Amino acid sequence: MIEIKDVRKVFNWGRPNEFVAIDGVNLCLHSQSVTVLKGPSGSGKTTLLTLIACMARPTSGRITLMDREITSLPERFLTEIRRRTFGFMFQQFNLIKGLTALENVMLPAYPAGEKHAVLEKRAGELLGLFNLSEKSRAKVEWLSGGEAQRVAIARALINNPSIIIADEPTAHLDTKLSREFMEILLSLARDGKTILIASHDPIVYESDMVERVVEMRDGKIVGE
Question: What is the pTM of this model?
Fold first, then answer.
């Protein structure tokens, strides 16, 4: 599904503070699989996720998504690919304060131009899936950490993406909530989602649901 060939990402290229974040990575990720990018902070995990998810462009190399080379596509096409293909779960959740849980879940789907009632119904069903129906009208700043995490998961699923991207998803969760989160990911994997996680949390990369662990250091893949 995703092929990464000779990819490099260099920040501040040609300047005294030039930094090579990704250094010649080659990787093939299969559909309907669960893969963890493991490594310390600064190893390049998050940068590689942003390249795969069309949120940034590599300095060199090629990325192919479902047999389509995406590296050189114009931004308007990348925006559509991001919206249709990927669901994002961020380390800080990135929920919008002042908005309700329901409104936060609906946000990524607004550009599609669906009728508001249809979109609201789907968002409500997702919140119900995670036992948050009673919290749908609550502002997100009133939610517990576990509730906020589940809202973030529902938001990632609103466009029915085929690929879930999760960047350090358990970084701000305790052990109990981290294990609950992995159970939710397991259910998504069983539904046929492709899941790609960046994490240095053993609860994540030692989970039985993880099929592949790719270890990174200094922008390179150093083992599996």
Answer: 0.88
